[in-house]
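Subject: for your reference before the review

Hello V.,

The reviewers asked for a structural picture of the protein, and I figured it would be easier to keep everything in one thread rather than splitting it across files. Below is the amino acid sequence we used in the manuscript, unchanged from the supplementary table.
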Amino acid sequence: MGLLAVGTPLEWSEAKKVASHVREWGIEQLLAIWNNAKGKERDMLLWGDEIEYLVVAYDDDKRTVKLSLRQADILEALATDKELLKQGGGVPDLARGSVKVGKTAPVFHPEFGRFMLEATPGEPWGIGFKDLLDVEPDMKW
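And here is what came back from the structure prediction:
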């Protein structure tokens, strides 16, 4: 999924009013990206994992699981997590603390629903064999 900024989604009735405008902007952005990149050759391929989390609440007594709408609370806690910030991770949309240069911990983003979060590498990986060795540890952060 695409990167979302922190904010409140529009109600469906409001979203329908601006749908054609959003489509037009999307096409313009696609064409601009294409025009900027169509002549590029031999750029190094960079890549990364993307983990999407569902936020749930467990009720052990009733043996039920329900979606939890605490995405904002979790992002706020991650944005102020000293250990995460020390390793260069965090929540860019909430920009707390200084950013460490170099190998970094994952960064977290809001996802589509208020019950979803996304984590991506703090920086992309390259094409070398050693980059492959970073994948699993990064996912375990």
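For the response letter, the relevant points are probably these. The two ends are 21 Å apart (CA to CA). The beta strands are 51-54, 56-59, 64-67, 107-110, 116-120.

Happy to draft the paragraph if you're swamped.

O.
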